[in-house]
Amino acid sequence: ALESIDFKNALEQFQNLVEKMIIQKTKESSGLYTKDDDEIDYGKFYTTTRTLFGSAVKDQNIQAFYRKVMSNLDERPEWLEIFGCFGESDSTSSPSKESMVLLVSEKQQITHSVVKRKDVIKGIVKVPLLHLTVTASQKGLLTVFNKQCRVSVIYVEMDTAWITGCDFLPNLKYVVAVTESTIILWDYKSKESESDGFVIKPMKNCLLCVSTVSVADNLAKDTILMGDDKGFVYLLTITSDDFIMKQSKTGKESQFKVLDAESFDIPKRKLHDDWVGKIKYFSALKRFGSCSTDSITSFVLDNIKRLEDHLPVKEFSVPKGVNAFTYCGKAKVFVTGG
């Protein structure tokens, strides 16, 4: 129905109709209104709106819009509400139906509780190629949702440390999470409770964030970036052989097998003078970004090779630092929030 009319013109007529209705009601309230042939009652409002928009509007939304205008003349509803957007919804309609005017993608609610009371999500990562969503809670609950929202869950036995971030290793197919003193590697596909993953420890400083370096040149290894509370950024490369060769000999049984952090070559470089709040690798730029509340070196954007040498890095400063950042590929711009 809407394809056969000029929607912009119809919308202008509708907004004029609402304005006339408000003026009329205002005059009625002050006793200055005299009834004439142009009087707009509900019947006229309904008929005109139906003529303008056809079947794209529903009776209950027209009625709700009219009632909202009449009840509060100072707070005018948005025109979107005539199509059932942001207004009183029809509980009997199917949530999968799309509006004829505004195409809103269907949302799917995850009914799995994910975390228990007094726990919070500290990281959420989408893995588009595998249609997965990974979450990590502060108290050690790692969760993987697939496209059908089926869940793989493991509860990591934590000491006193809390999980501070997570990501996904695309080549090794492991979930990686960092705590204040360890790196957790979880094989979410594993069915055996005693071989679900590995823990790399001890880490000297408190790890605050983690990001995978997405490079598809080697299917047997993955590289991750991490930031800590002293301003250091770390570069760690993990291969499938490490899971066999670098296991620590521990006397007691543990949930995850332990890998000795001392056996890994982990280049690091101090880029900030305060906590590293976020770190991210951008495949399109072949660069990583890291931010901090440091007012001098607030945001760094450079090649990961800078973590292994001492050449100057591309950086800029913001008063009181940067807490978050993101990159838009289409516009080719970075946006930071401080």
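Second entry:
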Amino acid sequence: VDLDTAKQELEEFIPHVRDIADDSIRKMAGRDLTRFKRFKKQGIAVKFGRFSQKENNQIRKNVEEFLLISGIDNAEKLLFTSRYPEDKETISRLKAEHLFCEKLSEGIPRPWRLIYYRARKMFDPNNYKGRYTNEEKEKLKRYHAVHGNDWKKISELMSRSNLSVAMKYSEIKSAVNYGPWSKEETQKLMRAVEEVLRKRTEKEDANSLSSSKKSHRDLLIDREKLYKKLPWTAIEAKVGTRYWRQCKHKWTSIVTKKMTKGQLLCRGIKGLQAKINLIKRLYEMNVEDPNEVNWEELCDIIGDVPKAYIQARFYKLKISCVPFWQKKTFSEIVDYLFEEKLPELEEKL
């Protein structure tokens, strides 16, 4: 299909498709459009966001099956072919012959590119090598000074994954402060978010409103846009002294305080009742994976808050109450909270 038709057809499944580069849209039209239509007939929506455990298992199954039918030795050769220059031609031929793109994405209602990146992250032996030593951090700074954002090159030099070196550099590129937020830092964060929101609103206005309405519209922002899909790495760069995750958590707390008019929602009797309600609702949902939870539906447990606040409450609950929670599945954590912690909280209440 031609580019305009591809955009039009893909827009049904990917609302922001017109913001994607033309070259990427052409690839999506070839790799994804037929799959998306097939999923639609089955009543399955295209997904974004974090991969569920079920999807991760499907990727493993798809990769293992492709290795069997193609005869390629291992997943690293399949997904990181450039690391094996002597075998590159043979591997590429086998991938084409056995329809690698179709096989990898089988049963997963997501854009192929995202499935491919997820598979690379899962099967990269360089991706789980523990904490960076001080020596590695200094090497990373030196390599970045020479190679810039060529993460592929730097990952080869560091024997770490592309994602790992990019994320670690984002964390260490400036003097990150781990203490309480200063007034100056908080103001920088608020200005950075405001700048992002204003630019986004101006872009929307240019597409939908006449110039006479722009000045008034500039002050009106839908509440959900205050905390959904913000470009945190860009905001991190503007703040300068905090890692992007810190910026996100701080902004969530600011928005929550504004939305709740400064009420202390998780202390005293209200706090106990909120924990009890959260545990009960999660137990009733009976889901196996946190990505299957509709966190927005749980907001009424505490009050008028963003879903990130609820997720943060659950995280705090599990790390403070569930022994060895890192080794437990999501459903095991919820079961433990329901069976062991809930009676204690109810008695305390």
